[in-house]
Design brief:
This protein is mainly α. Helix content is 79%, strand content 0%. It is elongated. The relative contact order is 0.15.
Length: 259
């Protein structure tokens, strides 16, 4: 797949592969920290967890900073990323994961951990994981989800408006002018039309870049908001689930593309 990429795509592809390897390293550290705190429930100092959480969040921020830089060079590649698998591409929203997915992930992992505890016949014991979400936390999560949905709708409508502009007066007029020249086999005026087309499409790409930034900003805002609601140990469990899902979907996609 890499041989078909342009320079900017190739650079980001290499960055993404390196970023995924570091995500896997972060996952191992998160799992180790969670296991350590679970085995020793007398630990009261969460400074190590705070430090690890800060590191992982910084890793995600590094990804979006790289995307922002890449979008300035070639925003179209961010909306058709060759470094992702077909499965990942099919699940994209605004060139990334849909922010409300974070809330669904939280609910899913909470239910799984609570069910596991019930199966072990120890429902009354607190494990400090996502199965221990309090009613206050649930209310905050519910409120956050409603907020994210509203903001997602604004961005979706912004992109819809941009997509509809593919048939606005400027696009239709230029497409007609160039088509007439092709039919008449005329060369005069071609350079002028090319310049107008280039200017028009640049405006479209600038708008796409803004939509991309809106989506990525909401993704990071959502991640940080979820973590703020959770205790440090719960935040570690959430980041474990997020990293596992990210890595496994990428692996599954690669296997599907290889068949």
């Amino acid at each position: 797949m890499i041989e078909h990429e342009n320079t900017e795509q190739l650079n980001f592809h290499r960055f993404f592969d390196s970023w995924l390897r570091e995500l896997n390293t972060n996952l191992q550290q998160l799992a180790s920290a969670a296991s350590h705190h679970h085995d020793d429930d007398q630990i009261e100092d969460d400074s190590d967890l705070h430090s690890l959480i800060h590191k992982v969040v910084g890793h995600y921020e590094e990804y979006y900073n790289a995307k922002s830089k890449g979008a300035k060079e070639d925003v179209l590649s961010m909306f058709s990323p060759t470094w992702l698998t077909s499965l990942e591409d099919a699940l994209l929203w605004m060139a990334g994961w849909r922010p409300t997915t974070a809330v669904h992930l939280l609910y899913s992992k909470s239910g799984i951990q609570l069910e596991a505890r019930m199966t072990d016949l120890i429902p009354v014991l607190s494990c400090g994981d996502l199965g221990d979400l309090s009613s206050n936390q649930m209310n905050q999560i519910d409120e956050l989800q409603r907020k994210i949905i509203r903001e997602e709708r604004v961005i979706t409508e912004r992109l819809a408006s941009l997509q509809e502009s593919a048939a606005d007066t400027g696009m239709v007029d230029l497409s007609n002018m160039e088509s007439e020249m092709i039919r008449k086999e005329e060369d005069s005026g071609g350079r002028d039309i090319d310049q107008r087309v280039k200017s028009l499409l640049k405006n479209k790409k600038d708008e796409l870049e803004e939509v991309l930034h809106m989506g990525d900003s909401l993704r990071m805002e959502t991640l940080k908001s979820v973590l703020e609601i959770l205790t440090p140990l719960q935040a570690v469990y959430f980041l474990i689930a997020a990293a596992e899902l990210h890595l496994r979907i990428h692996d599954w996609g690669q296997k599907m593309d290889a068949t």
